Amino acid sequence: MEATSIDSPEIRQGIWTLINRCKIGPMPLPVYVAIAAITIIAAINKKLPNDMIGGFAVLMLAGFLLGEIGSRLPVFKHIGGAAILCLFVPSALIGFRLMDPEMLKAVTTTMKTANLQYLYIACLVAGSILGMSHKVLVQGFMRMFLPLLAGTLAAIVVGISVGLLFGYSPGHSFFFIVVPIVGGGIGEGILPLSIGYSEILGKPQAELIAMLVPAALLGNVVAILSSGVLRWLGDKNPHLTGNGFLVKSGEDVDLLKADHTHVPIDLGLMGAGLLISCAFFILGAVLSEYTGIPGPILMIVSAALLKVFKLIPEKIELGAYQMYKFVSANLTFAILVGLGALFVSWKDLVHAFSPGYFAVCAATVTALVASGFFVGKWLNMYPVESGIVTACHSGLGGTGDVAILSASNRMGLMPFAQISTRIGGAAMIVCATILLKFFN
User: Fold this and answer.
1) Distances (CA, A) of 394 to 43, 245, 256, 345
2) Torsional class of 41: left (φ above 0), alpha (ψ -120 to 50), beta (otherwise)
3) Is 49 exposed, middle or buried (0-12, 13-18, 19+ CB in 10 A)?
4) In this structure, what DSSP letter does residue 131 have?
5) Minimal CA–CA distance to 65: which of 22, 116, 18, 115?
6) Side-chain half-sphere of 255: how many Cα atoms within 13 Å?
7) Cross-strand bridge partners of residue 23
8) Tens digit of pLDDT for each residue in 216-227?
9) What per-residue confidence (pLDDT) applies to 159?
């Protein structure tokens, strides 16, 4: 039998099919390489548009690549590696002056002149809150209120106490370490929090983001590890776990089924969702003039109140949710790249990671999870599940919830995790900003 030549059409077709199956983010490898080459050539020849077109190209190319690498690296992929690389690598490139000037100009225009991160915040906040099932929001919050409250108070007390041992003032430990950990992630938490802090303290937002981001990243890592420990504890002690159910009576079965996220995409509703997201951000800015409270914080409060009282049509809520899903799926890594390049100082980032800082972050999350475990047990909940859901309060938004629940093999708890992350995080941001304004 004659051997098939490597130059045969069948072999070439097979190789080409294999290459096309390799993806960087959502894009086939050949397409990604072609777009990257076009962008690089344009930058070298100073033809890269200094606007959102050039900025989007650079941010999305870098975000897809770093996100793909971070989600595949051993160990790293389990502790939020994609977000870490998207923040750290651009920060390092700027710190060592290795980024192409033309690319940096386009990114700066997109992030600082066009304020892309504000649009991102608006879509995430409005869509994540409005997109929640009303039943899950109300009933889930009622069930999680005490474990979340106890866990948050324990995290604050322990975080401040350990901070004092390492020379941190109570104010610094609370506002710049504990709050970023339990603030609900980067997009929904750190960004609106940094804007609020900036308005109150009169400091550049970039400086504040560099102070807030390390705590959120470390808190997420400790929460994931804690979730794995709780899973092991449940395996060793079956009476402590409901194997995915939170309440011992089984009353959460129907609640966990209350999910409307699998509705087909409606492009018209997505347009309405984009508009209402912008409207919430503008409303926050208007109300800020009369209350003195930063606009992004009022945007969170407004969305939560309108959701609770059912003042927005369900279809519009669905549009906001679908817009949120589109933005979070396609722009999260790109936004993180922009934050890392322009808002996170490499020098400040490196200096933030000290033994004392690690200790405060670890103690804060451990106290949060332990409180959720024991309070849940007292409230007739399965303590393992209660501790895991409470751990989500210190996760990096939706991505953090997935990582934490994956580590514990409890993905069915996602509705409760969303309450812990979104509502718990939003509440902490609002309270912290008001307290800072009061004490400043």
Assistant:
1) 39, 21, 21, 23
2) alpha
3) middle
4) T
5) 22
6) 26
7) 28
8) 888 988 998 898
9) 96
